[in-house]
Amino acid sequence: MEHTPSNRPPAETPLTRRGFLGLSAAGIAIGATAAWGPWPGAGVAAAATDDHGGRTLRFAVLTDTHANEDEATRMANLRRIFAAVEAEDPQFVLHCGDITDYGSDESFSAYRDLIPSALWERVRHVPGNHEIRWDTSARRRFQHWFGPTSYGFDAGGVHFMALDPTQLLQEPGLFADDLAALQEELRGVGDRPSLLFLHYPVGGANYYVNDTDALLRTIAPFPVRGIFAGHRHLNEVDRFNGLTQVTTNAARPGPFYLRVTERHGRQGRMLVVEHVALGATDAEVPTVEALAEIPLEKPSASAETIRIAARPGPDEVALTAVAGRSAVAVDARLHPQSVFGARDERAWMPLAARGRSWHGAVDRVGVAPGIHRVQVRAVDETGGRREEWTEVELPGSTRARLAWELDIGGQLQGALIARDSTVVACSTSGHVTAVDAAGRGKPRRIWTAEAGPVHRGAAFTPDGGAVIVPSTDGRLLALDTGTGRTVWTSHFEKPVLTTPLVATTAEHGGRILVSAEDTLRCLTVDGATLWEAPVPVRTAGRAACDGERVYVGAGDGRGYAYDLHTGTVLWSVLTTDRPDRYRQLIYGPWDDWVEVLPTGAVVFSTVADAIAVDPRDGREIWRTPGSYIFAPSLPLPDGGLLLTSEWGVVTAVDQATGATRWSTQAVPRVVNAGPVIDPRTGSAWLVSVGGLLAEVRTADGAASVDRQLFTANTFSTPVLAADRLVVAAQDGVLRAFTL
């Protein structure tokens, strides 16, 4: 059966940055009211009747299908899974994300065709990182095929909530603004038990979502009894904070799913979770393994809260924790802020019991001064845990001292820009704010303008008179630098998720180059469109220009050169030897901040190499290994080129030959936030994705960590303005530090 999506998927619901849609009042049958078309999930089978005449829940859970129309064996495996699930006739099916490999319409269509029509109406989806990570129209495309990304529904006296902490163009998760909508939804549910399903597992050793602590604080007052998750491609059951989390195996490598059935036992209503593995052929009997039980009526003793008092010192953080009466052990550690979208199973420090309180200390030797979190967990005799966090400031000598901070709201994602003492920051909340960085105490807002959500950096026009802002609502705006007034607007069919390049040429004056997914546009500084050209698949990086040609990294694994005057493609170069479309995208230069060197060479970067090519024909000049795609390269006055890998390794190479001058491990991880040069010293300042500030001497690569700036993540290159380092973070706060 052919499924044809509409040509214009909807914009995101303005309620939050992702569009949290509470549907409990309408129950499950809500799809027909959506303006963009029926939501596939409107149908639900009637609950079964148990021996006592009551209605019981019966549903299925699966995750990480990773549908890819180029992988015939995988698609056949998934078709078997859905046929088996349909035969069980569940009331509904929860899909915990990573539906496809990279979220293309072709993959979504192929996935849709795997599912029997009678079952399709009962499948409920949340996105995984694979739907959102590599797609500049990701959430729009997901909504088009599957409906809202966050929502709630009722079944069998239980409230189910789909959560979406995925981040556009990023690997790990963040709940951020959606927690307020989640709290409101839970308040409306009252005392009914709730279950959450999402892609990333949370708690324990899982650090896939940076604000897991905020999530657990948000749901603590409510009867949330369980979580279903995926992402890890294995089965795991974890009990903490009064709930049971079931992380389930990926459907991709084998025919697996979960069968969930309501039962009544000594603890009242509970859900029995079984892992079903189909045989090698349909003739073989499936293997069924009991995996977990989720009590619906009462939380475990691990729901009792912990009160924490932390006293940081030069070598350790002394702790006093008051846990619940059921605690048989309490331990603690510093939150591993450097762990980014991964797990961490390093040792915890046990605390000693003294009456109802627990005492001890965690070592902080080698840990940078600044803002950190301390984690404390209490374990009861059943193995259930309570996890709590508290924020501390570790003392120590630092060069960077906080001068001021300003809460802008949303998430500050894109690179900052500065001109003299004026700094412009753009937020996913739609606020574009100009600040005078030179002030003391609370900074002076010069103006605040409204745009759609902004995920990439802005740019000044050559004369500094306007700020060019890209927005995910499909607009490119020029704002007056002095007032914030909109000077002109250029409209696109798709989200503008590239940082604009404003190029100055002797022949033409200023030219603005910007892409909206698969369209490259050249404009005058007055906003007039000169030409448009297609970009294969998509691009999310920044273009480069040498006055004759424009260079763009594309989603087909190639770097392209366009004629600046006409937009004609002059040449392309393949940057990766990966054979299929999915891997050509993720291993190519699609998100690269392309650079034209003073030598004239053009540098395209991927997750494997930085590649310098001849601007005339794309011929390779040199190549150096490293994942340099996610941080802008930085030419140095002495003929060097500063390359920063996503693993926090900073390398200086010769611009002409690519020969390494020096290489140093500066910080643990860097994503999108490149270094900035201090003109007073020639040193580079670099902020890790986890908020750790380091100084790197460009002469010899000597690196020194200065301080932990905050506990949020950052994807934003800082700026130096009025002799201050101004840094943006995902907590929506703009901070300035004297150096």
Can you tell me about this structure?
- Among the domains are: 20-299, Purple Acid Phosphatase, chain A, domain 2; 307-394, Immunoglobulin-like (Sandwich), CATH 2.60.40.2450.
- Helix content is 9%, strand content 40%.
- The chain contains 8 helices and 56 strands.
- Strand 38 (544-545) and strand 39 form a beta hairpin.
- It is globular.
- The model is unreliable at 1-42 (pLDDT under 50).
- Through-space gap between termini: 64 Å
CATH superfamily of the domain at 20-299: Metallo-dependent phosphatases
Q: Roughly how many Å is the radius of gyration?
A: 26 Å
- The residue ranges in which pLDDT falls below 50 over 5 or more consecutive positions are 1-42
Helix content: under 10%
CATH-defined architecture of the domain at 20-299? 4-Layer Sandwich
Q: Note the overall shape.
A: globular
Number of helices: 8
- What's the mean pLDDT score? 91
Largest sheet: 7 strands, mixed
Q: What's the count of strands?
A: 56
- Tell me the name of the CATH class of the domain at 20-299: Alpha Beta
How are strands sequenced across the largest beta sheet?
1-7-8-9-11-13-12
SS-based class: mainly beta
Tell me the strand percentage band. Answer: 35-45%
CATH fold label of the domain at 20-299? Purple Acid Phosphatase, chain A, domain 2
Protein name: PQQ-binding-like beta-propeller repeat protein
Domain Calcineurin-like phosphoesterase: 57-233
InterPro entries: Calcineurin-like_PHP, Metallo-depent_PP-like, PQQ_b-propeller_rpt, PQQ_rpt_dom, Quinoprotein_ADH-like_sf, TAT_signal, WD40/YVTN_repeat-like_dom_sf
Domain Pyrrolo-quinoline quinone repeat: 429-503, 508-625, 648-737
